[in-house]
Here is the input.
Amino acid sequence: MYSLLPKQQFSQRRNALMQWMGADSIAILPAAPQYIRNRDADYRYRQDSDFYYLSGFAEPEAVLCLIPNRPLGEVVLFCRERDKERELWDGYRAGLEGAIELY
Here is the structure.
């Protein structure tokens, strides 16, 4: 899954937030949890609105960190690695390389 918006738009949103934040601050935004419907099915996943607004990343088990006190500001996205076996059951995962390329 990827966003239809250009990744520059998300970058501008993150930069605007980091300019508003103080130099001695950090923002840690977790992705929305995935809810289990029953033993072998999950509810359809919906990303947290704030997380998606800043990252465009729509996968669960991710964390976005904004660190404005670095020389150029820093954005760190922690996400799940690609796992072909789990992708058969759960669907596509961007993984580390996909997150860098798409988000």
Summary: Strands lie at 27-30, 36-38, 41-42, 63-67, 74-78. The domain at 7-102 is CATH 3.40.350.10 (Creatine Amidinohydrolase; Chain A, domain 1).
